[in-house]
Structures are given as structure tokens and as C-alpha cells.
Amino acid sequence: MARVGTGVRVVGAVLAAVLGASLAGCSSTGGKRAEERAKAEAQGRPAVSTPRWTFAMVTHAGDGDTFWDIVQKGAKEAAAKDNINFVYAHDDQAQQQAQFVQNAIDQKVDGIIVSLAKPEALKDVIAKAVKAGIPVITVNSGSEQSAAYGALTHIGQDEQIAGEAVGTELSERGRKKAVCVLHEQGNVGHEQRCAGAKKTFGGVMENLYVEGTNMPSVQAALQAKLQADPSIDAILTLGAPFAPTAVKAKEAAGSKAEVDTFDLNESVARDLKSGALGFAVDQQPYLQGYEAVDLLWLYRYNADVLGGGRPVLTGPQIVTGAEAAELEDFIKRGRR
Amino acid sequence: MSATATADERLAPTSLVRRLLGRPELGAVVGAAAVFVFFSFAADSFLQASSLSTILYSASTIGIMAVPVAMLMIGGEFDLSAGVMVTTSALLSSMFSYQMTANVWVGVMVSLLVTLAVGFFNGFMLTRTKLPSFIITLGTFLMLTGLNLGFTKLISGSVSTKTIADMEGFPSAHALFASQWTIGSVTLKVTILWWLALVAVATWILLRTRAGNWIFAVGGGADAARAVGVPVVKTRIGLYMGVALCAWISGQHILFSFDVVQSGEGVGNEFLYIIAAVIGGCLMTGGYGSAIGSAVGAFIFGMTSNGIVYAQWNPDWFKFFLGAMLLLATLLNAWVRKRAEAK
User: Fold this and answer.
1) Rounded mean pLDDT, B277-298
2) Which of A235, B137, B191, B333 could cross-link to B60 by cystine, CB 3.0-4.6 Å?
């Protein structure tokens, strides 16, 4: 055991030395300091004096999902402004998501925001919430079921319509053969996007399923696809993190295909500006969170309802190189 | 008494065929050849040089981790935290460099130390508590998964890291961990070199050094090994730190190759490493296997996962193929070994 003790001390000493050295080994470019220099954020404080209501948001997000992070940020900032106590829970298993909604009902919250990726699993618990007099707003997915389940309104992008917008855009860009890269097998929304794009696209579109949790394998699979079929001239990824990987795969495979993507992030903005990406389809996740909280507040405050029984669409918005420069700052702050 | 009867049977010369049959990777090599021939016919573009380089890249990313995982399995243990540890290591270098505005290499070194410490923790807990490695590393797996998400969100304010591509030291680190060479239409990634080097070093350790004997002895029977003076604790901790070292190499590749790291990645990859090691002839019970076998296993994995794309098949069936391949390889290994022992 003495040997082990020495080992720990040695590791500790080396760690301390490196930490010390790091203060000397600074980078004069990039990093947090650069970010702080550039940052000038508005402070969130209540703008209203309505009672402090509690709203719960329960989504089907998996752990560590960039997209839902932005939705949450929008919801939190609206909550700060509306003097709302905001609670958030998520689980990609439908059963657990339903359980979280039940928990919110038990806590007698003043409003519930829920995403309907697997609508049937949440039907009963939403009915319970409505029966208990809690207003429900659905976001992101589930535009078809929302009204039938008794929700006030639905805020989100219709995946089919978003896909159709992509198909039209690809046709206008004169593309002939496209591949739609799905990073989650069995995700209904992803299938709808590709189906929508296939519908309006003039050329041929094929689906390619990749292992989304393993980036090197995403790149290899896409490279393989491009090498197998050199006539592919457009690649469509369904999430921002996969777009730069698609660009790498295309370069490695020596393909001339144009890469386009759903959703935005910092690297997508950079690649749009440099022309490495053709366009991105944004469904404005910030707006989905922000509007959901704000509309619940409006309903409590003034019994206002938006949408007239129809879904309120937050997308698709097609972003190209020209808009990307303007959006870059907002993307860096995690809002777009 | 004739001279032949008294000769020690252990000293008798063995035929080349018999020696080959006794090698753990034989089943895997036969399997790899079969998969190769199969996809050569099934997919037109499978045999072109650029496709083979893609397959090699895919195999190398699994193979780099399959090497230490195979050594660990020979030593009789598992590491379920190996997959997320790769992500942890990438997140560490990225966030440390960014938050401290430090030269990227400082982050890379901090990440090495912390990752090795995690490996040390696994080995130390295992030898101290005498709990099965399944429990210990499952605990580490869950803790690391949570820490990856929690810390990234706490520090970066979002679930992925910020870009460090514009920071000092990035180009040189990129060259070491993520560079590539283009020869004609073929792009070769540096991970392939890392992989081959690791296989060579591991093979040397296993077959030519005292530590290698210790690993086989510990995996064959820890108590018997301890009785003959093998430092069991040291060997096990060393094996776990080996996994950590390779997780660091792998993590740095992901960071410098893709620039931004998603904190939720890596979950489930530990099984791919174990699959590669098992296809390559490692026994689940320890004491038997090879580093070359793990490389062949990773290569089979690379051929299968990309071959299905080259053949333009419906990839819904990929996991089924992988499972069938795993079963077949294991059965083939068991059969070959039985034949070798019976002779």
C-alpha cells in the first residue's frame, strides 16, 4: 500500500505543477478571455408584477442534446422576464417523460409545457393535467395530436413542411442526387424530414442511417456512401453537429457534393460563411421555449390564446452564408 | 527404455500447423478473410483503394481502444467506462484550454493526467474492494457520463464545448492526433499509425516481457499467480491505466479532428471495444487472447459497418450482422481451440 500512496502523491505533485505551468502557458488567441471581451449580455429581470407562478417543462430530450439546451435557454429567459418559477425535466424514454408530467401535476404547477415525440404515451397524463385545470402547451413535435389532447396551442416546426422546404431549395440549387443522413434510427421526426424533402425534391434522394453517438463512425459511413456512389451531389444532415463531419467526409472521399443541414451552431455558421455549407434550416429552438412560457403567462394573465387552433410555426427558416454572419453573435450566446 | 519415451513432451518440436492452430487470433483471421471476400463480391466499390482507407480509419478508431481492452480481458477484467472515458478525455483538454485561455498543449497534458487518474481509480478500487470489475467500472461509467454532462453545462453553458481551433498549440496538436496524408485518391489518417504502433507495443509486452507473463498469469488465476510472486495489484492497476492512456489518445483524436466535442457522446462504445477483443480471440474468462487478434476484430468491425454502406443495403440490419458475426467468431474460436488442444 505504501507504493500506492507514493503513486498518489506523485500524481498530485505533477498535477499541481501542470496547473502552475498552465498559468504561464497561456494562449493569446481564442479561449474564455476572448469570449468575455466580446460578451455584452442583457441581464434578465422580471418586467411584470404578476404573481410568481410555477411552469413546468417536460421534454423528450436525451442527455446532452444541444438543440434542447437552446429551447431551455429561451424558456428560462422568458420565465425571468415574466416572473415565473421555471422547472425543467427531460427523458428520452416516453414512460419516464409521462412520469415527470405526472410529478408536475402532483406539485400543482400553474402550467405545463410538453413535447410530444411519442404522443400516445403522453395522452393520458395530459388529459389528467387538463382535468386538474392546468393549462398545457405542446412544443416541438406533436402538432397533429396537440389540439385533440386538449392543449391550448402547439408551438414548433412541422417536420414534413420543413423537409419540403429543403427539397424545394435543393431543386432550385440544381441538385440531382441527394443523401439524407439520419443520426437516430427510429426517430419519427427525422423520417418525416427526409420524407418531406424527398417529396418536393426533383432528383433522387436516399436515406443513410449512421451511429449518431460515435462521430468517427458517422464520418466513415458517410465517406463509404460517397465512395460507393460518386454521383451524389448533395448531403443533408439532420443536426448541426453532423454538418462539419459531413464536410470532412466529403473532402476525404474527394466528392464535390454540397452539404446542407438542419439546425444551427457555431461551426455551422462559420462553414456557411466560408461557403463549405450550402444552407441550414433553422426551426428557432429559442423561440419554441420562449414562446411556450410567454404564451402560458399570457393565458394566465389575460386568457389569451395564439394560433386559433392551428400550430404556431417557428420554422423552417432557410439560412445561407449571407445571414450567417449576422446570426453568428446570437449563435455564440447559445440562442440560435 | 528408449530415448523417445523419456524425452520431455514439452520439449518436443511442434509442427507449424499446430502452432498456428494454437494462436488465439486464428479464428478471427479466417473470419476476416471470409468477410473480406464476401463484401468484395457484394459491393462494387469495396475493393477500391479509397474505400479501403475509409475502412482502415473506421477500424483504427475502434482498434486503438480494442488493444488495451483486449489486454485487460487477458488479465481477466472488464472496463465498462472505456467508451465515455474517451469523451471525458476530449472534454477535459478542450474545456481546460478554453477556460484558462491556455496553450492547447496544457489542456492536453492535464487531460492525460486526469484520464490516467481515472484508470488508476478503477484499478485501485478493484484491487482494494475485491468487487467484480463489472460493478466498479459500471459505477465509473455512470459517474463519468454524469460528470461529462454536468461539468460541460456548468462550465460552457451548453452541452457541447466551444471551439478551440483558433487557439495557440492547436495546429501542432492537430498534426499529432488528427493529421492525414493524401496519396493519389487515398487519404490515410494518423490514427492508423497510432493503432499499428499500439498493437506492436502491446504484442511485445504480452509475448516478450515479464509484465506480459504477469498479465496472462493474473488472468489465468489470480491466487495461483500471487502464490508464485506475481504482483497482482500492480498488474491490474497497470492494465486499467493502459486503457486510460489509449482513451486519452482516442479522445484527443476526436477533439482535434472534430474541433467541438458533444458531451453526450461515447456511451455504448465500450461494447464495440469488447466485441472487437472477443472476435479477436480473447476469452471472457481471461488468461487467453492477443493484441493482434483485437486488431483483426476491429478490422472485421470496420469492414462490416462500412461494407453494408458500400453494398447499399438497408442499414437497419447492421446490428444483427454484428451480433451474428460476434457469435460466429466466438464459436469458431472455441472450435479451433478445442481442436488444437485435442491434438
Assistant:
1) 90
2) B191
**Is ipTM beyond 0.90?**
no
B113 touches chain A (CB under 8 A): yes
Longest alpha-carbon distance in chain B: 83
CA distance linking residue A263 with residue A336, whole number of Å: 9
Q: A245 near A261, Cβ under 8 Å? A: no
Residues in contact with B209: Cβ distance below 8 Å, sequence separation at least 6, in sequence order: none
Residue B14 three-state SS: coil
The verdict on a CB contact (< 8 Å) between B103 and A25 is: yes
d(CA B322, CA A319): 39
| Sequential DSSP letters for B188-252 | EEHHHHHHHHHHHHHHHHHHHSHHHHHHHHHHH-HHHHHHTT--HHHHHHHHHHHHHHHHHHHHH
pLDDT tens digits, one per residue of B229-276? 999 999 999 999 999 999 999 999 999 988 888 888 888 899 999 999
Name the phi and psi angles at A189, rounded to 5. -60, -40
Interchain pair A18, B106: CB under 8 A: yes
Among A14, A27, A221, select the one facing B104 at the smallest CB separation: A27
Q: How do residues A65-122 score in pLDDT, each as one tens digit? A: 778 889 999 999 999 999 999 999 888 888 888 888 988 898 889 999 999 888 888 9
Triad A327, A238, A123: Cα angle to 5°: 105
Measured over the CA atoms of residue B9, residue B10, residue B13 and residue B18, the dihedral's sign is positive
Task: State the smallest CA–CA distance between residue A86 and chain B in angstroms.
Answer: 17
Predicted confidence (pLDDT) per residue in B163-193, tens digit: 888 899 999 999 999 998 888 778 889 999 9
